[in-house]
Every structure is written in structure tokens, then in C-alpha cells.
């Protein structure tokens, strides 16, 4: 049962254009969402996050939008650069009875930015 | 420099052998985690520890064991009971109730 889904395994975008990466979730208890960027054979690096009390968070070229009613979030990268080419993981957190606050990850979207 | 180190980067093991993956952090984080990544899949939680001398099973703990004797260290042992051990293993840490997790560079384990 995948609680966090990234339905697009890959995305190709021209340099300078907008990249939009999507993520859907099923667990209504998720209260915090994060995006990580990962290069091959490296650990993920934190990119941007959003709390469930907000619907938008912006950091430079990166903006995350949260639509709680649709259980959907998206990451916008504007303008896209070749260095943005990587795998992007959506992740979410919920308070659980056990006190666990580990992340639940989506399967990732590979972004290719063409020069 | 503060961060998380994992060693070795590449590890080969013969079937039937146990192997231990190292994870050390100097971020003074209380919580540490082990994830596994397989091709085309997200990261799946193996074990986590919220404080020294305490750890909990994640979603795929079978065939793995951990210890947390020191705050800085959270080694993962892949036992011979793990049916499909070949994968990329990632260690992470966070503040006690922090939302953001910081990841190490990973260890790729290959079982021959």
C-alpha cells in the first residue's frame, strides 16, 4: 500500500522552462511534506518542505504547492537548469501511535533538463 | 565539517554471510534511520532509533539488526536471513522531533 505516489517516473524539460513534479498521498494524517533531490550513488539532499498548515512555500527557484483537499503536492522549478537533472523524491511525515516520525517516500521522478 | 558518513561505499558479500554497514554522524542528532533503496522504488525504512539504547523496527526489518550504543553511531547488520540483500543502503539522522532528515552518501551492497 503506497501512501505516497509519484506517478511520473521521468520528466524531460528544456533549459529555462518550468519543471513541475507531482506527488499524491493517501494518508490524511500526514502533516509535513518534503522534497529531496538525489544524484546517482549519493544520498538524497533536502530541497524544500511545507507544513500542512500552509499551501505554498517558496525558496529561490523552487516552490512547493500543497492542495490538502486533493491530497496533492507539486514542486515547481523555474527556470530549470541542467544542474537540476536528478531524481526527485517526495516524502511525508505523520505522527503515529508509536511516536515514529520517519519519512514515507514516493518512488521518485527522474528529471532531465535539456540544454 | 558536520555530517553523516557511511562506510564502505561499495561492499560485496558472499551469500550466507552477515555484513555490517557503518553509519556515523557528528551533528549531535538524537534520531537515526536506515533506509533501503531498490531500482525504481522509493526509500523504505528498515530500522530507526530516536534515542541511544533504543531502536524500533521499520517497514522491512526482517533479516536486519541494529544497535545504538552511542549517539553518534547506528550500525546496520544485514544477516543471512535477508532474502534479497543487494541494494543501496542509506543512513539518515535528525533532531529529536525534527522534520528534516539528513542523509549519508550511502553504501551499495552486492551479494555474490
Question: Care to describe what's here?
Answer:
The complex is a heterodimer of chains A (about 120) and B (about 110). By secondary structure, chain A is an all-beta fold. In chain A, about 0% of the residues lie in helices and about 55% in strands. Chain A has strands at about 5, 10-15, 20-25, 30-40, 45-50, 55-60, 60-65, 70-75, 85-95, 105, 110-115. In chain A, strand 4 and strand 5 form a beta hairpin. The model of chain A has no long low-confidence stretch (mean pLDDT about 90). Chain B is mainly β and about 110 residues long. The termini of chain B are far apart. The model of chain B has no long low-confidence stretch (mean pLDDT about 90). The interface of A and B includes residues 41, 42, 45 and 107 of A.
Silhouette of chain A = globular
Major beta sheet summary of chain B: 7 strands, mixed
**Separation, N- and C-terminal Cα atoms of chain A:** 38 Å
Classify the beta-strand content of chain A into a percent band.
over 45%
Low-confidence stretches of chain A: none
What is the number of beta strands of chain B?
Answer: 11
> What letter string, H or E per element, gives the SSE order of chain B?
EEEEEEEEEEE
Biggest interface and which pair forms it?
Answer: A-B, 26 and 30 residues
Number of helices of chain B: 0
Task: Quote the distance from N terminus to C terminus of chain B.
Answer: 35 Å
Number of helices of chain A: 0
Strand residues, percent of chain B: over 45%
CA radius of gyration of chain B is: 13 Å
Q: Which geometry of chain B do the CA atoms define?
A: globular
Number of strands of chain A: 11
- Structural category of chain B: mainly beta
- The oligomeric status of these chains comes to heterodimer
Amino acid at each position: 500500500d503506497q501512501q505516497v505516489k509519484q506517478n511520473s517516473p521521468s520528466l524531460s524539460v528544456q533549459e529555462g522552462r518550468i519543471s513541475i513534479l507531482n506527488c499524491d498521498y493517501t494518508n490524511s494524517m500526514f502533516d509535513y511534506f518534503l522534497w529531496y533531490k538525489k544524484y546517482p550513488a549519493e544520498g538524497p539532499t533536502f530541497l524544500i518542505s511545507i507544513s500542512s498548515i500552509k499551501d505554498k512555500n517558496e525558496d529561490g527557484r523552487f516552490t512547493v504547492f500543497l492542495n490538502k483537499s486533493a491530497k496533492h503536492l507539486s514542486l515547481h522549478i523555474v527556470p530549470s537548469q541542467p544542474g537540476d537533472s536528478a531524481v526527485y523524491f517526495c516524502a511525508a511525515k505523520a505522527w503515529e501511535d508509536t511516536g515514529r516520525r520517519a519519512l514515507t517516500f514516493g518512488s521518485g521522478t527522474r528529471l532531465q533538463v535539456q540544454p | 565539517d558536520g555530517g553523516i558518513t557511511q562506510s564502505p561505499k561499495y561492499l560485496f558479500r558472499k551469500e550466507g554471510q552477515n555484513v555490517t554497514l557503518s553509519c556515523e554522524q557528528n551533528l549531535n542528532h538524537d534520531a537515526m534511520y536506515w533506509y533501503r533503496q531498490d531500482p525504481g522504488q522509493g526509500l523504505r525504512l528498515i530500522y530507526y532509533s530516536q534515542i541511544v539504547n533504543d531502536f524500533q523496527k521499520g517497514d522491512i526489518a526482517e533479516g536486519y539488526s541494529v544497535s545504538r550504543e552511542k549517539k553518534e553511531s547506528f550500525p546496520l547488520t544485514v544477516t543471512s536471513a535477508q532474502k534479497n540483500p543487494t541494494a543501496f543502503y542509506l543512513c539518515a539522522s535528525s533532531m529529536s522531533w525534527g522534520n528534516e532528515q539528513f542523509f549519508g552518501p550511502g553504501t551499495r551492497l552486492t551479494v555474490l
